[in-house]
Amino acid sequence: MKNEVFRVVLADPNSRFVRTFAELIKGVSPAVQVSECLDLDCALLAFSEKPTVDYFMLDISLLGENWKDRLSQIIEKVTPTQVLLTSEKQIPQKILQALKLGIRGYITKTTPSQTIKSALNLIFSGEIYVPTDVFEENEISDTSLYCLPNGKKLTPRQIEVLQKLGKGKSNKQIAHELSISEATVKLHINALLRQLKTTNRTQIVVKAQSLGFL
């Protein structure tokens, strides 16, 4: 988490959501300054008027039908500011497409407040966040052997990444072998850290071995 003052431009057509989300952001760090907007023009103006903006957060509905092209233009315009998306619904295909374009986080509005705070903490610490179940559609043969003590199962893609970690592969190697981006690999590793209650990739492997996953 950053200790110095940092700035967020937040844009959403729903004023109630803007107020609620702004309070959640401020609750994560007292050092944050939030510019609240109801449309994209306001957000871009707020961005241009600030000396620096660390995070540009907007609802995907503001991007319109050609959202991918518009998102690409915005990312190019505001870089190195990090772009985050919010939405009413979790649409895995859109989230994965947005990740490939370069967003640093995706939060759905139905997410519980405490989870949103945890996601923001992760993002403000320099990590990437998306809902972990976004990746559950990536199927491999049998996940029944990868059941955690709490009864939850690792997702198919998490299992694939875990297997690569067990072989000592780097993020770059894992990304190449699974045909995904390094950012996506990092997301899966972050999910494994949480699921296995560990703090680094070495501990992931040790814990997985103790559970019989590797």
Largest sheet composition: 5 strands, parallel
Number of strands: 5
Q: In the CATH scheme, what's the topology name of the largest domain?
A: Rossmann fold
CATH A-level architecture of the largest domain: 3-Layer(aba) Sandwich
The overall pLDDT, averaged over residues, is 86
Number of helices: 9
Note poorly predicted spans.
Answer: 137-142
Helix content: 40-55%
Radius of gyration: 18 Å
Relative strand content: 5-15%
Which term fits the overall shape? elongated
Order of the strands making up the biggest sheet: 2-1-3-4-5
Please identify which CATH superfamily of the largest domain we are dealing with: Response regulator
What does it look like?
The chain has 214 residues and is α/β, with parallel strands linked by helices. The protein folds into 2 domains: 6-130, 3-Layer(aba) Sandwich (Rossmann fold), CATH 3.40.50.2300; 136-210, Orthogonal Bundle (Arc Repressor Mutant, subunit A). The chain contains 9 helices and 5 strands; from the N terminus they run E-H-E-H-E-H-E-H-E-H-H-H-H-H. The chain has a 5-stranded parallel β-sheet with strand order 2-1-3-4-5. Strand 3, helix 3 and strand 4 form a beta-alpha-beta unit. The chain is elongated and about 55 Å long. The model is unreliable at 137-142 (pLDDT under 50).
